[in-house]
Amino acid sequence: MQRAMRLLETVAGHEYGAPAKQLARETGLALPTTYHLLRTLVHEGYLRRDKGLFFLGEAAERLSSSGARQKRRSTVVDALAHWRDVLGAPVYYAVYREGEIEVMCVADAPGTPAVEEWADFRETGHAHAIGQCLLSQLDGEARRDHLDRYPVQPLTPYTVRDNHSLLRRLERIRRMEPVTERQEYALGAVCAAIPLTLGTTAATMAISLPAHQADRLLPAARQLQAEIGRVLGSLALSISM
């Protein structure tokens, strides 16, 4: 296994392919061993042979792509965990994809627990800051389409009452301003969401706090926005995973 990995790494370093003898020399493997491993790797799809030269095959490229995705996700998870510790609050990352609200990552801890998803986040975007922030980034037609599928329903005494009231609220949200909600999704919790600019993808990072810490909400959201702003360029690829 170790020798096969060494061969794969060596082939990956040759954009225009390499012959077996060169690969044997560079890996320090005996030529018969190299031929045997190359045949096996070609058979398994990890390498392909063309005119006596060896190149990475589809199986190796799939592994590379999967590894890159995992690395990007790890970068996002690490960033969220750092901001959780700095802010003393759980941090969420979500996107609006193919007509659905998707919470991609949550960084919380025993002392800073995330809000319990007691009602499906996808169906209750009108009630939580994540959903309101994502919907505010859509055009009017996409908002109405979403509400046709997931109409407003009261979850707490503080939830917006109907589709019309929600649409009016969304129109008033200023671009790049934090979106806040106070006990609209869950009693005892307040939330704020920061819009992210990721090309045409609607995305957000958000925080939640216990209602008795509501005075911390907007300052913490502003701090998160500043933290994101400092690293958004380097995170842009990762958070578009």
Automatic annotation (TrEMBL):
UniProt KW Hydrolase keyword: no
Protein name from the UniProt record: Glycerol operon regulatory protein
InterPro entries for this protein: GAF-like_dom_sf, HTH_MetabolicPath_Reg, Tscrpt_reg_IclR_C, Tscrpt_reg_IclR_N, WH-like_DNA-bd_sf, WH_DNA-bd_sf
GO biological process: glycerol metabolic process; negative regulation of DNA-templated transcription
Domain HTH iclR-type residue range list: 1-58
Matches recorded under Pfam families: HTH_IclR (PF09339), IclR_C (PF01614)
Molecular function per GO: DNA binding; DNA-binding transcription factor activity
SUPFAM superfamilies listed in its UniProt record: GAF domain-like, Winged helix' DNA-binding domain
Domain IclR-ED: 59-241
Function: May be an activator protein for the gylABX operon.
Keywords annotated in UniProt: Activator, DNA-binding, Glycerol metabolism, Membrane, Transcription, Transcription regulation, Transmembrane, Transmembrane helix
Lineage: Bacteria, Bacillati, Actinomycetota, Actinomycetes, Kitasatosporales
